[in-house]
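Board notes (copied after class):
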Amino acid sequence: MPDESEFLRKKPQQSRSRSVVNAIIEAADQLLERTGDPNKVSLQGIAQRAGVGIGSLYDYFANREGLLGAFLARLTDANFAALEKEVLGTQSMPFDQALPAIIDATLRTYLEKPDRTRAIIQAIARLGWMKPVMSERDRFAAVLTKRLVAEHPKLEAERVQLMAEVLCDAVMGVVTSELWRERDGEGSARVREEVVTLVRGRVDALLREP
């Protein structure tokens, strides 16, 4: 995933300029969540929401694509850090017991604010960012692989990595579908149980292999 700084026209050097950039990116986040559509978010609206002049916004971002890129880079890093922390925080328990918490954290990350996530998916498509996003997903799969191999050292890391990548893809496919299905709480709970069963079943099958 490209670094946030790659989308800035100039790097903020002082605390005030960093605060301006942060306010602009946070305003973009808020408007994406409110509208659910990146095409409905204008630079003028972002500047107004951030409480800065449009000239100040253009000091740091050349266009809307650059601003969306910086926002997505920051959000992706934050999501990865949060999910990695969840995985590492379960090291004291068997992976099978930790699995529901890891699944819950993943679903919560992407489904807690559905309008925002729908807007993000559209922005990713608009920027042609599917390949970088998949690289980040594989990076999280590597965290899961390390966690599982540490508990079961006889497993072949390459095989576990492939399984983890496929399972991550499967879970994110469910997430994407659920964003547009908009189930009620009971339906979402059943989906969560199905996801846990799916992942647990594949992991158990791998552990039973000779």
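Comment from the instructor: Residues 65-208 form a domain with the Tetracycline Repressor; domain 2 fold (CATH 1.10.357.10). The radius of gyration is 19 Å.
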